[in-house]
Amino acid sequence: MSQSVLQGKAYSVLNLSSVTEGGTIKESFDRSMDLAKKAEKWGYHRYWLAEHHNMEGVASSATSVLIGYIAGGTEKIRVGSGGIMLPNHSSLVIAEQFGTLETLYPGRIDLGLGRAPGTDQLTARALRRNLHNGEDFPEQLEELRQYFKPTGQVKKHVRAVPGEGLDIPIWLLGSSGFSARLAGELGLPFAFAAHFSPKNTIPALELYRQSFRPSDVLKEPYAMVGVTVFAADQTERAEYLASSHYQRFLSLIRNTPGKLKAPVDSMDGLWSPYEKAMVDEQLSSTIIGDKEKVKTELEAFIEATQADEVMINSDMFDHQERMRSYEIIGEIFQEAQEK
User: Gene3D superfamilies under this entry (predicted)?
Assistant: First the structure.
């Protein structure tokens, strides 16, 4: 029997704490915790939360606070940011926040960093007060890394307490080549957002691997790739459930973001042919199907990307359907390990 490419691969969760139509933010947080507890049981390696702002359908804006909540309700799964949008914050504040998290939950905290605003320009201005559009991201990243170094290694007039001397894994996140190259040059792990930037996936991963220089952090490149997966007991059911996700992206390209909508039997009539083409292109890496179909497509995805780890987004309107999707995906990976 040939070995599956899934064997030995870590699999993780990306969560936006989505707020559904008719639902509340508190329900979103409760469901996020429920998923984290179950993901831990199903063998998921990490549970990351994404920073977005001014979006009524995404409740993970205070990302560090939510990471603490999830880490406090779980026992061993790694919890982190996918990601913190560093230009929105002072490097010192992030060092202190994640130093606090690592002190409370040692060996379980990841700091994934992005350079996009995670929002619109008006909100970015409200967050940042001045806009550099991420041009100074490398300098800000270096400043952050300095705060984590022991005080004996560098002379500091400003210190991160807590944070100083703590070994908190830093990841760079990206949907294009900028962070791929930077992660490679610094010898850091890299996470690519294939779930909404599929066309750039292979070029960015190749750039990361070509740019990679061994460091104290990594001797070899380590790439995690985000992918959206909708799994159900029947493919037809998975396709129906995925329509919520298509509606979400349709609202984004129309610049009318809102809460996560209930699934529909057909998207016909909801989008124009042009809008359909745009959504299909942006979501072309999405995997939808029953267990066998999802397994086959996950294998092809990992074969194509040579990902060391995959981070699964499975954002569904119905919480129990969503939990079942993550359970099926967990079964696929666990069965691959047992072969």
Answer: Luciferase-like domain
Q: Choose between 325 and 119: higher pLDDT.
A: 325
135 or 49, which is more confident?
Answer: 49
What is the mean predicted confidence (pLDDT) over 321-334?
Answer: 98
Q: Cα-flanking dihedrals φ and ψ of residue 83, to 5°?
A: -140, -175
Residue 42 phi, psi dihedral angles, 5° rounding: -90, 5
Report in angstroms the alpha-carbon separations of 16 from 53, 66, 298, 307: 11, 11, 22, 22
Count up the domains in the chain and report the number.
1
| Chain segment 312-326, per-residue pLDDT in tens | 999 999 999 999 999
Task: State both tokens at 143.
Answer: 């400043």
Tokens of 36: 């984290």
Q: How far apart are CA 169 and CA 184, in angstroms?
A: 15
Is the residue at 56 inside a domain?
yes
Nearest in space to 77 (alpha carbons), one of 16, 33, 31: 33
For residue 146, give the CATH number of its domain. 3.20.20.30
In the chain, the DSSP E strands lie at 10-15, 46-49, 78-85, 109-114, 170-174, 190-192, 223-231, 287-289, 309-313
Does this model's pTM top 0.90? My answer is yes
Per-residue pLDDT tens over the stretch 177-224: 999 999 999 999 999 999 988 999 999 999 999 999 999 999 999 999
- The Cα-based distances of 109 to 151, 201, 208, 227 in angstroms read 21, 26, 23, 22
The C-alpha angle 20, 23, 24, rounded to 5 degrees, equals 110
